[in-house]
Amino acid sequence: MSVDAAHLSTALSAPVRHETGATKTATGAFGRRLAVLALRQGSMAVFIGVLVYFSIAAPYFFTVGNIGNVLGQSAIAGVLAIGLTIVIIAGGSNVVTGGIDLSLAANMGLSAAVYASLLQAGQGDAVAIIGALGTGLVIGAINAAAITLAGIVPLLATLAVMNVVAGLELVLTQNTVVPASSDFLSAVSASGPFGIPVLAYVLLGFAALVAALVQYTPLGLRLYAVGEFPEAARAAGLRVKLFISGAFLASGLCGGFAGILSVSYLSGSTTGAGDMLLPVVVTALLGTVFSRRLVPTIGGTLLATLFVSSLINGFQLLNISSTLVSGVQGLLILLVVSATTLLQRKGNQ
Amino acid sequence: MSNEFLGGVNRRNLLKLTAAVGAVAGAGLFSSGPSFAAEELSLKGKRIGISTAGTDHFFDLQAYNAQIEEVKRLGGEPIAVDAGRNDGKLVSQLQTLIAQKPDAIVQLLGTVSVIDPWLKKARDAGIPVLTIDVGTTNSVNNSTSDNWAIGKDLALQLVSDIGGEGNIVVFNGFYGVTPCAIRYDQLVNVIKYFPKVQIIQPELRDVIPNTVQDAFTQITAILNKYPEKGSIKAIWAAWDVPQLGATQALTAAGRTEIKTYGVDGSPEVLQLVADPNSPAAADVAQQPAELGRTAIRNVAKLLAGGTLPRETYVPALLANKENVGEISKKLGLG
After folding, report:
1. Can you give the pLDDT of all 334 residues of chain B as single tens digits?
2. Which residue, B6, B19, B62, B52, is CA-closest to B286?
3. Whether A268 contacts chain B with CB within 8 A
4. What angle (nearest 5°) sits at the alpha carbon of residue A329, between those of residues A326 and A332?
5. Residues of chain A with pLDDT under 70
6. Domain B147-286+320-330: what homologous superfamily?
7. What are phi and psi of B82, to 5 degrees?
8. Are A176 and B174 an interchain contact pair (Cβ–Cβ within 8 Å)?
């Protein structure tokens, strides 16, 4: 188990703070902190280096219009990755036994299909919004029940739910595109102030809201405590299962919200929502290197989303085949996971 | 969805247009254009955006590569993006492409309702949009096979092969894609006059990806539902990848008395048509590379100040058991 002393001390209330972590790693702590610093600064340096390179090689890259586009194009994946980050925070960051929500992309697909179908059936945007968010919440609730009541590992529980949800989407849409248009949808996919897409503002606003909740409130700190050290959290009187359920509900809601954005962006509900899953998981995992202590954070996930989108955008501007992007993504995740794993092992010695 | 497509153009005008173009097509297609000979065309110093819904099928790969080569041949710089059959990626790429302000954008395939708002944004930004196989009012010119003729030819071949009566199984999963809708509507138009030909309900839905495996599974299931020989006469699909899966399923189940029909001229399917023992009866072959080159030549004409017709038709060739060898030769498939 990863015991990050510095981290626990902020996560748990004072009486529970014990010295074991601090003394055990007293000698290794400095080296580890240095490595963490190097990894974090290194990844920021890579990010900035990539941005600088694109700006020089493709002068159009660093313009308000293009950065706005990148932000807007990140919105759907960003909202999903933020949902996943909440689950990873509450469930712990072990990829196999920790918190993960594989049903997120399918959730977005079904929520979008519900939204588009409701509009097609003559309902207004208000009903459709409630329908989409409700769909997301129900999926979140099923995940929560399977994990906290039935005790299934999140990886398997959400995998099963993913299949059910993807099947429901097929039933609802018959695997066809369901076109949808309304004034609200056009407004969301239009350009806002400074010629920047409205979706860009939506992403930044949403990320700021969730970051405020998760990083700066007692609720958020308890969420971290539950994920990092459930036994200690329980000893401190936190209702662990309640927090985990809440995280899955929040992630379900993110799926529903992303569904609405997707309907607006694609002028309807389309097939292939499942393709989003891998990039979203990659983004959420990549996000840890953009945080101060190599833990999942909302800000880190936002940066990772923008990083991946910038790569795709920059490759297109440089006229490099976009198929290379998935290769680069795979390479990044391999680097990040091995680096954090090595650091965690070192931290536990 | 076809209403959306037709709605913009006005149905009656479109029909007139089709009739007129049908008459002109034969004559007009073989001369390369009214006022520009092929040698005069140039794209020197021009950046041409080439966006495709995907390149995972014979048809779109051929058309996509031919476009890139033609832009280079004419001295221009292609900016080519492939969405890998993902609508989100397609829209993002179009959005970035519009921001790159190329001299023109050519969109190859794609679901109209998804891409149309973005093609309109390109048009609003002053970038001429040309399309291949996409019916939208936001495109200056659409290069396409004459899908009305394709649909009619295929339907007539089918009806004549089954002697004007019997049940047929139909794959109709992509009615939202304009060419598929036209071909399907033509099938319905033809069998309207053959009341003994019935489409088995519910119609099947072909899918992307895993088209072949899925068609195989669906046809195997329907064969179990209609076990007597003669209860199904033919299987129709708007393109030939489901036809491939269907044909394999028939062969596997020993129901080779059922004939299959499709469109696109994929090499695997043409091979099956050429095999006298295969149930693959006919495949209308489009000329995808020629479609791609035609679209790019149209861009060059437009940028040189020429005017373009609403649609440019590239002839399609129906391959059946009798003429498949000849057609394959024409397509350069040996």
Report:
1. 333 343 334 444 444 444 444 444 444 444 444 445 555 789 999 999 999 999 988 889 999 999 999 999 999 999 999 998 889 999 999 999 999 999 999 999 998 999 999 999 999 999 999 999 888 999 999 999 899 999 999 999 999 999 999 999 999 998 888 889 999 999 999 999 999 999 999 999 998 878 999 999 999 999 999 999 999 999 999 999 999 999 999 999 999 999 999 998 989 999 999 999 999 999 999 899 999 999 999 999 999 999 999 999 999 999 999 999 999 888 877 6
2. B62
3. yes
4. 155
5. 1-28, 322-323, 333, 343-349
6. Response regulator (3.40.50.2300)
7. -120, 120
8. yes
- The values of phi and psi at residue B145, to 5°, are -75, 155
Q: Where are the domains of chain B?
A: 2-144+288-314, 147-286+320-330
DSSP for B67-122, written as a single string: HHHHHHHTT-EEEEEE-TT-HHHHHHHHHHHHHT--SEEEEES--HHHHHHHHHHH
CATH superfamily of B2-144+288-314: Response regulator (3.40.50.2300)
- The answer to whether the CB of B108 falls within 8 A of the CB of B67 is yes
Neighbours of B241 (CB within 10 A): 25
Q: What CATH number corresponds to the domain at position A218?
A: 1.10.3470
Evaluate whether residue A38 is within a structural domain: no
**DSSP annotation string for A254-272:** HHHHHHHHHHHHTTEE-S-
The four Cα atoms A212, A215, A218, A221 give a dihedral, to 10 degrees, of: 160
Name beta bridge partners: B105. Answer: B49, B129
Tokens for B325?
């060898």
In a domain, A33, yes or no: no
Longest dimension (CA), chain B: 64
The DSSP bridge partners found for residue B169 are B235
Q: Do B82 and A323 count as a contact with CB atoms less than 8 A apart?
A: yes
* Structural domain includes residue A37: no
A329 C-beta neighbours (distance < 10 Å), count:
19
Using an 8 Å Cβ cutoff, are B269 and B260 in contact?
no
Asked if residue A236 belongs to a domain, the reply is yes
B1 vs A179: CB contact, 8 Å cut-off? yes
Number of domains present in the structure of chain A = 1
ipTM of model: 0.81
Query: What's the pLDDT score for residue A9?
Result: 39
> Smallest CA–CA separation between B46 and chain A, in Å?
15
Q: Which of B3, B113, B120 should one mutate to test binding to chain A, selecting the residue with the greatest count of A CBs within 10 A?
A: B113
Burial of A6 (0-12, 13-18, 19+ CB in 10 A): middle
Query: Do B96 and A262 lie within an 8 Å CB cutoff?
Result: no
Residue A348: per-residue pLDDT: 54
Residues in chain A with CB shorter than 8 Å from the CB of B96 are: 66, 69, 73, 313, 316-317
C-beta pairs of B132-136 under 8 Å, 24+ apart in sequence: B132/B63, B132/B106, B132/B107, B132/B108, B132/B291, B132/B292, B132/B295, B133/B108, B133/B109, B133/B178, B133/B179, B133/B291, B134/B107, B134/B108, B134/B109, B134/B110, B134/B178, B135/B5, B135/B178, B136/B5, B136/B8, B136/B112
Name the nearest CA neighbour of A275 among B132, B209, B324: B209
Q: Shortest CB distance from B93 goes to which of A66, A267, A316?
A: A316
CA atoms within a 13 Å half-sphere pointing along the CA-CB vector of B6: 16
- Which domain, by its residues, includes A49? 5-26+43-348
On the question of a cis peptide bond just before residue B209, with omega within 30 degrees of 0, the verdict is yes
Q: What share of chain A is helix, strand, coil (3-state, %, to 5)?
A: 80, 0, 20
CB atoms A265 and B117 under 8 Å: no
Question: B168 with B136: CB under 8 angstroms?
Answer: no
